[in-house]
Hints:
By secondary structure, the chain is α/β, with parallel strands linked by helices. The protein has helices spanning 13-23, 40-50, 60-72, 83-90, 108-116, 127-143, 152-160, 168-171, 197-200, 210-218, 220-232, 271-279, 311-320, 325-341, 349-360, 371-392, and strands at residues 3-8, 29-35, 54-57, 78-81, 97-100, 120-123, 146-149, 172-179, 240-244, 250-256, 261-265. Helix 2 (40-50) links the parallel strand 2 (29-35) and strand 3.
Amino acid sequence: xxxxxxxxxxxxxxxxxxxxxxxxxxxxxxxxxxxxxxxxxxxxxxxxxxxxxxxxxxxxxxxxxxxxxxxxxxxxxxxxxxxxxxxxxxxxxxxxxxxxxxxxxxxxxxxxxxxxxxxxxxxxxxxxxxxxxxxxxxxxxxxxxxxxxxxxxxxxxxxxxxxxxxxxxxxxxxxxxxxxxxxxxxxxxxxxxxxxxxxxxxxxxxxxxxxxxxxxxxxxxxxxxxxxxxxxxxxxxxxxxxxxxxxxxxxxxxxxxxxxxxxxxxxxxxxxxxxxxxxxxxxxxxxxxxxxxxxxxxxxxxxxxxxxxxxxxxxxxxxxxxxxxxxxxxxxxxxxxxxxxxxxxxxxxxxxxxxxxxxxxxxxxxxxxxxxxxxxxxxxxxxxxxxxxxxxxx
Length: 394
């Protein structure tokens, strides 16, 4: 059967890799809906190649531009715009699988729409769980969605566990999320004030967008993955550990109750977890390079230095705090990273903004009662983080 796929965030690195994997199996996959927020020209090129049923952009003006472009190329893709359109295509009855690759909290609503509609949901948007948490998992359960993690670390954990999810709790003692350490793993923490955006985005192992590259440099990416793992695998914070593994060959590990360790290995290429998500429980060619055991570097492991990566402690504190605390942390980080990429604040100010927002914006139970409440909390946290950005730019 042909699997109709909706890709939320089709022009980003994960979206592009998803289309690369689908292209290897044209008899199995059809691009049913493709979305983009900024890169309209890139989306137009994808639509000319893949001819999806729907394309979704951010604004009516962008929709008009794309519609005219595709009409001139003889492509009859229907062009939609706005948040409601994202939710519409994510929940479309004709869609089998949804690749959730929109970066940030903006991807939460369509992720929940796909979950409630019972889709095969390939989750690359970690913020859906960091922000949505309990509400998102409830939507997955209520809709009967098949939730498949796409982050390489969470996919690795998933691949090490039995297909019967009810057996996970009896098997797991704890999990170990591996982290490359990014470009500043061995850099003197005293010199991080002077880091430039281009330096922060120069990841040694992975090719990613600029926001997630900065998150990797600060290790906030791993901090958010700790939060994501708590919900994906129903773990307590103390069951989630982080270790630096600079080679990015072991993607993460499960330590079982008998102290045996199960690990998933491979070259650092997102096409592997994407292929796993698309084909699960089968396996098929991903296009990733095979791991050369004789040619690979020795595998090493290091402690994550909290002086260099203080964001990890914030994640554990947020998990142990009031519900909604992880929403606040994510919102602050999105604002802080955008300010750093815009050269408004220093690299080290990212953590200061995150910590200051967490300390100031304290959620109440009412802030996590519904999706709208969480999004209101998100806006409040962003407003506070933006006020801190202004203080740091004076």
